[in-house]
Specification:
Layout (H helix, E strand, L loop, with lengths): L1 H16 L1 H30 L27 H9 L10 E10 L2 E10 L3 H5 L5 E2 L11 E4 L1 H7 L10 E4 L2 E8 L3
Parallel strand pairs: 4-6
Antiparallel strand pairs: 1-2, 1-5, 3-6, 5-6
């Protein structure tokens, strides 16, 4: 134990004698610890924590891919054919993320929107806290279910937002539901 105390005193004296080296060592340790903490936080939030849906362990995501020249759009008729011939899964839903310019009131913004099949909310086990979700009668209609942050920021938490239009690109969408946070 006495040797350890002597070694620590010697190390502290050496660090005190060379402040440039000491500063470099401290900054290197701080950066290393900070980077490690950030990476562990990302791994925890992305890989280790389950999704915030009921029965999240039963959800899988299948991605349609193709080369750049042919695109990756799935035609609605093809998706319906997949649903009819479904044998290995309980249900199948489709979604496509895309940037959408939004004009609501005095605000213009480009948001990431998601085009979805009508059954996506029931498949995920979530429902809007206000209004309703999508159903088969909504196919082809210009409607939207908005997130609570969107409702707060762009619609100023208007309790009468259901039924109001929002401008999404060149289309006018009618709000039918507001999702919970």
């Amino acid at each position: 134990m006495e040797t350890l105390v002597q070694d620590l005193r010697y190390a502290i004296r050496q660090l005190y004698k060379s402040p440039g080296f000491t500063l470099t060592a401290i900054l290197t340790l701080a950066l290393g610890i900070g980077a490690t903490t950030a990476m562990l936080a990302i791994v925890d939030s992305v890989l280790l924590r389950p999704l915030d849906f009921p029965h999240a362990e039963r959800l899988i995501s299948v991605t349609l891919s193709a080369d750049q020249t042919h695109g990756t759009d799935l035609k609605w008729s093809t998706f319906q054919e997949f649903q009819r011939n479904l044998h290995s899964f309980d249900s199948l839903a489709a979604y496509n993320s895309l940037p959408i310019p939004i004009i609501s009131g005095d605000e213009n913004d480009v948001l990431m929107g998601v085009q979805v099949s009508p059954n996506i909310l029931s498949l995920l086990g979530v429902q809007p806290h206000t209004g309703h979700g999508f159903n088969d009668n909504d196919i082809g209609k210009d409607i939207a279910v908005v997130s609570e942050p969107f409702w707060n920021k762009h619609l100023h938490s208007d309790p009468n937002a259901i039924g109001k239009p929002i401008k999404a690109g060149s289309r006018s969408l009618t709000i039918v539901g507001i999702m919970p946070a």
